[in-house]
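step 4 of 6: structure.
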Amino acid sequence: MSILEVKNLKYAYSRDSVVFKNINVNLEEGKIYSILGHSGSGKTTFLSLLGGLDTPTEGEILFKGENIENYGLAKHRKDNVSFIFQSYNLIDYLTPMENVSIASKLPPKPILEKVGFTDKEMKRNVLRLSGGQQQRVAIARALASEAPVLLADEPTGNLDEETAGSIMEILKDCSHKMNKCVVVVTHSKELAKQTDVVFKLWRGELEVENRK
Amino acid sequence: MNFVKRAYLYIARKKVRTILLFSIILIIATLLMVCFSINSSSNMADANVRKALKCGFTVNAKTLENGLDENIVNQILNIDGITDSYNLRSYTVAEYRDTSSNKLKTRDDIGLKVYDNAGRVVGDRYSEKDSYFTDEGFKLTNGEHITPDKKQVVLVHEDFANSNNLSIGDYIVLKNIEGNSIEIKVQIIGIFTSTRKSDSEEYMDTTNLFENIIFTDLNTSSKLIYETDSNSQYGDFEVDDPGELDNLISEMKKIENVNWDNCKITKNDSSFKNTKEALAGIQKIVSTAIITIFIISIILIVLILNLWTKHRINEIGILLSVGISKKDIILQQIIEILMVSVPAFVFSLVTSSIATKIVGSKLISSITNSIEINVNIFDWLLISGIGLVIVLTATILSIYQITKIKPRDIFSKID
């Protein structure tokens, strides 16, 4: 069943500068999607629109049938979606435990353990963690929000191959074992191959490149 | 995690920023408190100085046939605004003799000798208030001062007493040698010394040498000069309000049967005027300092808070992206600024008290000792209140500018 429905979506900076138009797509729970595309193709913009960080020029995005703008974008971000960014976007004066707790009342420890943290690492300042560890804190924060949709913008862009692989495994678990709808924006075709559906944003249109 | 806990963690973990902001607010609040305290104290001093500094006028009635009699003095004292604190003085020259009519020795080794065995006789209502004792370094070493209740008594110089074997309780005779030749027997009730030497003894009339001066009561001087009981040549009067000095002198001149044109009236308000001018100078400096510190403080605090908030754009974007409301983000930063600024303002009460004691006392006490400089709790409340409004307004405005930006644009800015 579709959790996110995108209808006739258009985003333009001006009349002459259209990023994409006429996008129609349904995203389901329990599946992991990837979006490929060259730099400037509008991948991150599309992800931002799904997450309510920005508003479309035309068209609408429905979450469980309700327009997210009517629902309230801040509320949509709080209740329905969670983000993982390439640059981790952690709050630098908080520990992993506290970063995970900022938007959730769930106990952070089991979630951090799930993404491979030891007790000692959980209480360290986030800036003292490696890139892979910081991204895992960001994933734990996303999981802690209990939002059914997880939006990841180049989550492995700053990581080595091995760490990137482990992060992808966690994201796949999120969709397949935790029944979340995971959307990953990436440059890497190798990582995209691991997802259930691969979209390609090409010349302002979203095409399905591969479906398992 | 609620906004209060986030605020606490920020303050506790960003120690350098916290200490820096605390110090800036503390320094500004202390400087303003010191300026306000000095300003308040100098205002108070201006009012106090009118009462504390003795200000008045002297009536020189030497040219009047009978000087100032009791009736004129009473009429002057009845004028509203002239205090009961006054002194009457007279000066004459007398020959000094013992009770057996033997001439007493006076100092004549220096100066210009006009009369033998004679000296200046100063008649005083209160000898203690005489300028010889207040300004010229005379000091009573034995016995007691002349007061209005004493009659036919004198104070003599210790050198004069020693050279004539005189002591307290002994009697001498004063014989006027200017005008009449009245003789009055007086008792020595006090012995004084002069702690300073006169600058020009060699050019002085020997009667004016300090060793030859004798102080007597007003009754005695009145008998010597006017052959009456209570007339005097000079009257020193004090007024309640120095600002009313001219009016009171005009009022005094309305007293009838006195030829005021023949009297010389001198205003004694130089110390009041000097103090008032010095206080006005301080008030001007302090007022300028307050305005300058205020403007610089506002610019400094607004710039710092704006800059720091812009550095927190990443954090604000993250909080917005996880669905934390703008209201919560603004409240977090308000709590942070309160956690730093309130203790800083409270602590400024201590630092400003110390600073005011050191700086203020030196500044104002150099002009007058009539006031004590203290930190005023109302000034502190005013500065703290205005300070909090400034820091809170600066914080809210700078965060509000950021929260108006779309979260996606915030992340674009970070990238």
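step 5 of 6: annotate
 - The mean pLDDT of chain A is 86.
 - Residues 43 and 50 of chain A are 11 Å apart (CA to CA).
step 6 of 6: archive
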